[in-house]
Amino acid sequence: MGREARGIMEDGARLMERVRARDGAAFERLYDSYHRLVFGVALRMLGDATMAEDLTQSVFMKVWSSPEAFRYGNFGAWIARVARNRALDVLRSRSLRDESEIPADLAEPGQLDDTVFARLDSERVRRALAALPDEQRAPIEMGFFAGITHDEIAKRTGIPLGTIKTRIRTGLRKLRVELDGAVSR
Amino acid sequence: MNGTGEHEAMLDLVAVAALGSLPAGELRIVTLHMATCAECRAEYDLLRPAADAVGLIAEEPIDTLRSARMKKRLLAAIAPAATRRASSPGALIWASSLVAAAAVVFALISTVQDIRLRSDLANAQRSEAQLQTRVAETQQTNVNERAMLADLFAANAKRYPVPDGEVVARGSHVYFALRALPALPKGKVYQAWTLAKGAKTVAPSVTFMPNASGSAIVQLPVNASGLAAVALSVEPEGGSKAPTSKPTFIQPLS
Q1: pTM, full prediction
Q2: Between B248 and which of B72, B161, B181, B232 could a Cys-Cys bridge form, CB atoms 3.0 to 4.6 Å apart?
Q3: Predicted ipTM > 0.90
Q4: Which three-class secondary structure state does DSSP give residue A159?
């Protein structure tokens, strides 16, 4: 995300408080600020702009119809995870891929989010990810955006499964430290 | 889980679960393990926010026309929802999509007389109906599983350690999260029991069999807020109306 886009991105958590009160203008501003993010997640996972557009619509409809689903934490990270899970549902339901290659998610997004990261922005995450060695960053990004399991990551990269799992854990731990440092600076 | 090496391997799986890249089968194993392992649960809680943050880098520029079209569709869709909240916006989307699809179908039928095309269309409609049924079933399964997993890992869930696992209660839901249950002889099953507040006798609840490794996550189909205790025993296949064996455990819910 560029400097301009970051400048206009409003605090999603604050806007969501107004959306809960059925404030249509707040919802519109929420959409203006975050639709590129949702579309981006969907496009990366589905590889089709029309499907990504439909999914973006469906995610924001969910935000409007169930605003209580977001409770606290980083709104951008939450809505990106919602978009990811919806994209996984699409991949599953449309049988675009062998079901065994499609991962499952454990918790409803947002329920485990950390309030420390509430104001984390994409530039900080990009920098933190860039600070990881490629061998750790790549499987993390593949795992999140390719909508594939660790087995499939291992197959596609030709790296042993055990190594992939360890690199994901090591990378996420480093990312956590980097992000903790970023938000405390 | 035996041995440091095996536990390290489980911690690696926990990290993959936090990223959301485990297949459903392994996720159930990790879920069951985390229900009784504080270290792995803490690892998950540490890593999940970092994994969620990865999504923030996905923002893509969208061309102005597409962006305007998307916004127009969305605002048109929420306008009626804002004034008629009883109607599900999700249902409205489906309804409008179905109406649009129906219009296309009628237009085709009225203008194209080709019998073969009609036949193809009918086949496609049947396939679509079957697919939609399958989608609905899959989505419902996903919803149920996510709700259960959210309960099991909620910070405000009450956890009661029992032999071979825990009883987890959250809101109106109560679960047995058990592992390493002994295998049962043929014709026997595990059966849950519930004791309502103020009641003097237990009521029969679900019967179940653990998986090959002795693990089971079972939701009891009863409102947890009305319960004083739960119990587990081994019963004949089909279940019993009253316990016929010594309980594996009896757990008060305070």
Answers
A1: 0.62
A2: B232
A3: no
A4: coil
